[in-house]
Amino acid sequence: MNTLLTNDLDIAKVREEFPILSRQVHGKPLVFLDNGASSQMPRSVQERIRLYHSNEHANVHRGVHYLSQTATDSYEKARVTVQNFIHAKHEEEIIWTSGTTDAINTVAASLAQFYFKEGDEILLTEMEHHANIVSWQIHAVSKGVKIKVIPVLDNGELDLDAFENLLTDKVKLVSLVHISNVLGTVNPVKFVIDRAHEKGIPVLVDGAQSTPHSKIDVQHLDCDFFVFSAHKMYGPTGVGVLYGKKEWLSKMPPVRGGGDMIMEVSFEKTTYNELPYKFEAGTPNISGAIGLGAAIEFIQSIGLEKMAAHEHDLLVYATSIIEPMQGISILGTAKEKASIISLIMDEIHPHDVGTILDMEGIAVRAGHHCAQPLMTRFGIPATSRASFAVYNTKEEIDALVQGLLKVQQIFA
Asked: What domains can you pick out in the chain, each with its CATH number?
């Protein structure tokens, strides 16, 4: 049986689309298991970005000449591609950002101007990425807003009873991660959104880890804001998306001034542009947006359901082998879990684990994963994290296991 054929998905053929996977590291075949940080980019996305730079490069929205019109058409076509991918109701609800972090900061800075007041509360979770903590802290300090935190249970799931108790009339926003980048926990965001909306509280969902691996329907979720990055879903770095309901974006003030976000400017008064341009000051990452559109087309060419099924198979396979290993524990055992495994090896620091695995050509992430409060919750400094993508194989998991055994031998 060909182990590279799973769920009617020819992984060998998929891997051919990623030239970097054929290279060697330290004389060993590259095993790339750091997809939670940034996935690799397929040839089709690289070629689309190259085509823009070699054949279409010009600024958008500002020129009547052919290249500017061509670039603008490609740029705006990518916006529609994103709209359809996450099932947004309106094209103008898709705001280009530099990534998930920038998107959260944009919402936080805008809401701080007109929405939050002293004594209000923002509800986060204990498993948030720093981007979904610090962005709110900056404005909470100046506005006299308190941050409350939904605790995490020992298995890595949210304490929903605590959430219900924390969801008081003082809460003016809930902001939570869809999938934890450490635990792999898939949070019940629909439940959280419905409960919050019963009290008229808006919800922001950090979809950085969920968008590459699961179908997103923002209208079904009914979230008020949804944010994600291109570089975690086979696209380029430096570009991401802020989705916001039109009724929210329309009343939110911009947080950056400059070209393209204005209608008229005088020294006495400025009239802002319409959505989505009100939030897109200056020359954008044009090739990045076009690259994200191409990345979505790549995902659609394979089928998100097939990709998710393959990645789930990898998670189950890896867990079944690693879980019984002596001296190794897995952090995060939620019932609903994505293709992320965070490892703790007895008396061996994750940085040492990552360094030794690297010498075997295996790329994992070692550290606190921008989630220090979660590390504090579990009383650990860091973990070694393996995160899977569509091009990974069971053979690569076998290589990871052999690498972990070698780590144990070295420290025995």
From this structure: 5-32+303-411 (3.90.1150.10), 47-300 (3.40.640.10)
